User: What shape does this take?
Amino acid sequence: MPTPPRLILASASPRRRELLAQTGLAFDVIVADVTEHEDPAASPRAMVAHNAALKADSVAALHPGAYVLGADTTVFINDTVLNKPADLAEARAMLKRLAGRAHTVFTGVALRNLSRGIRIDEGVTSEVTFKPLDDAAIDAYFRLVNPLDKAGAYGIQEGRDLIIAGWRGSFTNIMGLPMETVKQILADCGLMGKF
Assistant: This one.
């Protein structure tokens, strides 16, 4: 019986690991040793595409026979990219900026298999609308959620009733890995059943 192809997630994100695990596929996690491009004035679509490809390419170079999945997510509002905050003060400032307004979440997805010549790049966007927030609401959210490891200082999967009024598009994209797109890519490569 042939050995199933190896799948590697090139990401340190526990949320991406949880989402990919829901496919039922076996995979390894190897964090890419790269410096991500995080210019607040950058095009968000280009930035996440670049970073996802950077992660996938870096790990694929070390494991050319494996399928390597890279992803990068950012939040974009008023022509400004909001990456992971450096500290709680910056996290608070981000949530105040998002409060009562809509913003866009961009994720770049890259799949590589060097030995098979596979190079797939996709981009997904979703829109999130925040509730108006005061300091007390932000404090309550921070007691529940660590904002420092999340682009835009929030995660939609926990405590969303405190801060989010609604969203359009892929929920899992807002979490950091658009599973509809990822499943289609994996199915197209023969790694899982068709959808």
